[in-house]
Design goal:
The protein is 52% helix and 12% strand. It starts with a helix and ends with a helix.
Length: 480
């Protein structure tokens, strides 16, 4: 009975009615855009942004890319308490949680993403469910968000049954935090250029019809002639005397300049949203080097979004833990951007530190590479009977042959005088692999399975030395 009473108190009483939605304007004069940018009420700005989002493919596609990039990321969750770990894992694996992340990523554009928060009782624990509040319901007053239900203003920060995720793109006020404020500033310029150009085409794309008439002396005949000319579907007509001089005034609108300005606006929108122009429709500078730079910018943006989103989700998960557990233990939640190139660079640093005798704590490695339960290898490279050598032993004792010679590599050896003691251990393993392999590809595959990073480079060079010796010996034997 107590549980039923508690869950009833947790249920939200907010019922969003579509009649209280802020309308999206179909026509936007530039004066309205300027007033919205200078206004303290976010509702007008949301309506104009909704118009551009609906009709401008550049804005909608770039925003969608950034939202998808963020909401698709895998996440890592770990708690110091097993019961709380199980609760959190069930919560984030529930159907609808990934959709919740996608809806929360709407805060990239708006600066905020509000949700109605309800709770359901499952196996003695309370689990949250989320209902996204569309920006069409949102207004603001004194830098505070609210929704209207009838004549009541419900301020979002004052409600326990509403959770708001804030994603500040800029350290500004509520209106300036999201991307939409700056997107509107650029999109409005593009909108003006398009509307003016369409007006020009509408007025002058069909040239005026000029008739030079004779013997039209009365007004009645003149009106009849005008009606006939209008029926020819021209935008404008005129009747002049035979000897009258006519001049057509041409506008200064140049198609190339117009298209260049539209392209400039689109690239500006792409730079603003994703930090790059190659994500949009600009391909004139798409070299490989520039592409790598843009990909790095994309990763930096993704990591920034993931860090902020992870922080916001942790607050929500902590709220759920407080509701269900008396003593909340420390836990972590992180959206994993999985930047493999960075991990490779870090691994190279760790290998170099190991080579000079510095041990890296396993806890640090687990945190860096997000791998639980790491252990240190006990392999002794100086012992030819060690586990790694046993792994590389083959049942068949065939010789390694190459396309250049039929001489077995097992008859050859690598020059030890040029090798350091650490490299000699690796060389010994390569020699064993070569003796037991039947083809070069088989030996190379064993190297891939046995070595990593710098160790693999040393082993690969040792195998190439064997190949070089095989070619040389084959050449000498052939001459002999």
């Amino acid at each position: 009975m107590q549980a039923k009473k508690d869950i009833k108190k947790l249920q939200s009483t907010i019922n969003l009615n579509s009649i209280y939605k802020n309308p999206i304007p179909l026509n936007i004069p530039y004066e309205r855009v300027k007033n919205a940018l200078n206004s303290d009420n976010i509702a007008e700005l949301l309506g104009i942004y909704g118009h551009f989002l609906r009709f401008d493919a550049q804005i909608s596609s770039e925003i969608q890319k950034r939202k998808i990039s963020l909401s698709r990321l895998p996440f890592m969750l770990e708690s110091q308490d097993k019961a709380q770990q199980a609760f959190l894992e069930k919560l984030v694996s529930a159907t609808g949680f990934r959709r919740f992340l996608f809806e929360a990523s709407s805060a990239i554009a708006y600066g905020f993403a509000p949700f109605i928060l309800n709770w359901s009782l499952q196996e003695g624990l309370y689990y949250p469910s989320f209902s996204y509040i569309s920006p069409k319901y949102i207004s603001s007053k004194n830098n505070q968000l609210y929704i209207s239900i009838g004549f009541d203003k419900i301020f979002l920060k004052k409600r326990e049954d509403i959770w708001v995720y804030f994603h500040p793109t800029d350290s500004s006020d509520l209106i300036g935090e999201g991307l939409m404020y700056r997107v509107i500033a650029i999109a409005s310029l593009k909108y003006i250029a398009l509307s003016k150009y369409m007006s020009y085409l509408d007025s002058l794309s069909i040239p005026p019809l000029v008739m030079r008439a004779e013997n039209i002396d009365n007004e009645e005949d003149l009106e009849k002639m005008m009606d006939l000319l209008f029926n020819l579907r021209s935008n404008s007509v005129g009747i002049f005397g035979k000897n009258d001089t006519l001049e057509l005034l041409n506008g200064n609108v140049d198609k190339g300049t117009f298209l260049e300005f539209i392209r400039y606006c689109d690239e500006g929108i792409s730079k603003l949203i994703t930090g790059q122009v190659l994500a949009g429709n600009s391909t004139s500078n798409g070299t490989q080097a520039l592409g790598n730079v843009h990909d790095k910018i994309r990763k930096n943006t993704e990591e920034y979004d993931a860090a902020l989103m992870s922080e916001g989700i942790r607050e929500l998960l902590k709220k759920a833990l407080i509701l269900n557990f008396k003593d909340v233990k420390d836990f972590s939640f992180e959206l994993d951007t999985n930047t493999e190139s960075d991990e490779n660079e870090q691994m190279e640093v760790f290998v170099k530190l190991k080579q000079i005798g510095i041990d890296i704590p396993l806890e640090h490695l687990e945190q860096t590479f997000k791998i639980k339960g790491l252990t240190r290898s006990q392999i002794d490279f100086s012992n030819p009977k060690d586990e790694l050598l046993e792994k590389n032993t083959r049942e068949d004792n065939k010789v390694l042959k190459t396309s250049q010679t039929q001489k077995p590599l097992s008859e050859l050896e690598i020059d030890d005088t040029k090798l350091e003691p650490y490299e000699e251990k690796i060389k010994s393993i390569v020699q064993t692999i070569a003796n037991k392999a039947s083809t070069y590809q088989e030996a190379y595959d064993e190297l891939l399975n046995s070595f990593e990073n710098k160790d693999f480079d040393i082993a690969e060079e040792a195998l190439f030395d064997l190949l070089g010796n095989a070619e040389l010996k084959g050449s000498i034997d052939g001459k002999a």
